[in-house]
Design goal:
Elements lengths: L1 H17 L6 H26 L12 H28 L9 H12 L4 E5 L1 H11 L6 E5 L6 H10 L5 H10 L5 H7 L13 H13 L2 H12 L4 E4 L6 E7 L7 E4 L10 E8 L7 H8 L3 E4 L4 H9 L2 H9 L3 E5 L14 H12 L6 E5 L5 H4 L16 E4 L12 H13 L9 H11 L1
Amino acid sequence: MGAKSTDHTRLRTLWSWLQPGLGIKRWIVLLIVGIFLTALGISIGASALSGEPSFTDVTSLPVGVIASLVGLTGVAASLFALFRLNRSLLSPYVKPGKRVVEVVARHRRLGRGPKIVAIGGGTGLATLLRGLKTHTGNLAAIVTMADDGGSSGRLRRSLGLPPPGDLRSCLAALSDDEDLLTQLFQYRFLEGEELEGHSFGNLFIAALSGVTGSFDRGILEAGRVLAIRGRVLPSTLADVSLAADKTPALESRTIRVEGESRIPEVPGQIRRVYLEPSDPPAYPEAIHALLNADMIIIGPGSLYTSVLPNLLVPDIADAVRSSRAFRVYVCNVATQKGETDDYDCEAHWTALTRHTGDGLVDVVVANDCLDTALSKGVSLVGPPAEGLRDVPFYAADLIDHDNPWRHHSEQLAERLISLLEERTGPLEWPKAAQVEQVGELN
């Protein structure tokens, strides 16, 4: 019974290709004719060389000329048929103004790119992904699930869904072409008693979760709608929340702040952040991506509320350590009010290792351009002057000069790809001379 059903399915598929209106059958027929003429020309030539009689003996034209004409006609017909057949098959995937060869070449180039996994959340991770997607199509973004504010928090409380906000931003960043559909995905309603503050993309993911029956399936389908280059994965599907111990200024006592959205709002210095529960199971696809990666990038993003919540999932941190990938921590270019006030690069690194332990990454990447801070009033984070404990670092101009609180997506991606391709270069420099030598290269 199963074999008959399979044969019936194949016959239906074959018949669908032969239905009128597809613009395919004519080119298949021309291709067959072209192949026949090419074979005939070769046969005529071979017969003439062997001295065997052929129908060309009744003509006045030389046998070589006839063989060449027939063969070349067949080759030309075959090539033209293949060209038109490819155009017909690829036309649904080619946008106006782009040539088929460009689309195919880009697809092949990106498909051969390195397997890169980026860990974080928020604006920082989306900025990084926009730059990386021009270098490889083998991208995976692992995103925190501790968000409890804004539209994500409202959907989380009302529907019991994991927060979709950071996932939505990464999906938009990885979209093949951030056109009207992607802008719609990022659109936030500005009025309406129930809709005000909600992002359309968050509502769309929530609807897809209901239609498909699961949140992770809804994320997968949203990626297909946006034609993203890569995958967006939650670090965990468990219902987790974030808490922090903070010490108010001029006080020695420590207070516990519950909720990711409240942590930056409460004055004081963060001592430590926690996930509740403390050992949520990691999303299996995230573990698989980390163990098979060529490069793992931690950050950029809010240190305590976007980056660390992923690494506080025990299996995620263990997978990063176990992976044979080249592992990089990208330090933020600017401090964040309520989280990293007055932090330098070393303070960022110390906070990361205090929560995750040593041996997590192979190199720290930092911005060394601080000039724009004077005109923009932004507290920028520079590279460490005398190196970092137990880890090399790489410093370069990575800042977006129009928005100095953010990385420049293209420059950051190019530097990271260069580090991956030349791992034996700047990573072997002595720590004391590192910043000076990188400055000379720039």
